[in-house]
């Protein structure tokens, strides 16, 4: 037996022994907490509310988001520096990391889980990669106008049929990208949808894509079941309005709550949550709240809506009862409450408290604090159950 063979057998024996000692674990209760200041993520499990480890070397995570593979084993982390990082949750390590652009603003994974798309500011456009290897599959420049200039791309979401939908901030357009045949990507463009779409969302059933407009009031709605009808404008008064109040942070559209017959929207610059009928997209009520809402998120059963706020009121969470459209509770987790994430069935909510370097876990029935976990400047919290939800 050669020395090389002996060393190989020794290494294999050690690996098998290590695997035998490691506890078996599923992936359904795992997740990542973004540590935005240090370029790292914390691997957590929500059944035991514990930290499993920290994964470093993910670059600029100042505006990071995460999607998951269909089997929930792999996370794809999109960094602001154009980084796309594939993370193995079971092994707690980076599988592969690429710098695919100069400035990125998020991404999505296809319905069949084989493609990962990234939306980019620099250069403006969408790039699509093989989810297994991170090898490039398609490059879709966001070119517009007679001179072919590039637009920033925002609001990228996945849609049924291995499609992606996104908005062009500078062009005022919505594009759909059909990747059902990865060798022949099909792009459909909707022009003149409104000035400066800054974010977008898709409804949980995958039917409607809605873009928020920074340059004017109103929202742009595309019915993906009836795309030939084009984009129509809804909620003409949604936005800053005639009275230009200071806006400390534009609300995230992906944080809208869809609960029952209603959509709950954060008002722009106002201390209100707006209630919209999902059948005709008309506003039917407004609920006064503590500050300028950022995320307005529904508990998975749709019975409650939780709200966090922009600076200087970002030490507060409030809870709305959907049945009565009334505020029912206010919590004060601490300074810099940036993000919320419900456990898959909604019994608990995890919230990041950035300025106090911790994540807090609350019971959603009686609102008591269950647990705290340390994290360095935490922001986004993303559980692996998102793998089975459209638009997340």
Sheet-strand content, in percent, reads over 45%
Total beta-strand segments: 34
Mean pLDDT comes to 91
Strand order of the largest sheet: 3-2-1-34
Contiguous low-pLDDT stretches (5 residues minimum) are 14-21
Share of helix, binned: under 10%
**CA-based shape:** globular
The DSSP helix count reads: 1
Structural class: mainly beta
CA radius of gyration is 22 Å
Q: What is the rounded distance between the termini?
A: 53 Å
Sheet bearing the most strands, described? 4 strands, antiparallel
Task: Using brief descriptors, characterize the structure shown.
392 residues, mainly beta, four-stranded antiparallel sheet, 1 helix, 34 strands, 5% helix
Summarize the SSE layout with pairings.
Blueprint lengths: L2 H19 L8 E6 L4 E6 L4 E6 L9 E4 L5 E5 L4 E6 L4 E7 L3 E7 L5 E8 L2 E6 L5 E6 L1 E2 L4 E2 L2 E7 L3 E6 L4 E6 L7 E5 L6 E6 L5 E6 L5 E5 L7 E4 L22 E3 L2 E5 L5 E6 L4 E7 L4 E6 L5 E6 L7 E5 L4 E6 L5 E6 L5 E6 L4 E6 L5 E6 L3 E6 L9
Antiparallel strand pairs: 1-2, 1-34, 2-3, 4-5, 5-6, 6-7, 8-9, 9-10, 10-11, 12-13, 14-15, 15-16, 16-17, 18-19, 19-20, 20-21, 22-23, 23-24, 24-25, 26-27, 27-28, 28-29, 30-31, 31-32, 32-33
Give an overview in words.
The chain has 392 residues and is mostly beta strands. Helix content is 5%, strand content 48%. The chain contains one helix and 34 strands. It has one helix at residues 3-21; strands spanning 30-35, 40-45, 50-55, 65-68, 74-78, 83-88, 93-99, 103-109, 115-122, 125-130, 136-141, 143-144, 149-150, 153-159, 163-168, 173-178, 186-190, 197-202, 208-213, 219-223, 231-234, 257-259, 262-266, 272-277, 282-288, 293-298, 304-309, 317-321, 326-331, 337-342, 348-353, 358-363, 369-374, 378-383. The protein has a four-stranded antiparallel sheet with strand order 3-2-1-34, with no helix packed on it. Strand 26 (293-298) and strand 27 form a beta hairpin. The model is unreliable at 14-21 (pLDDT under 50).
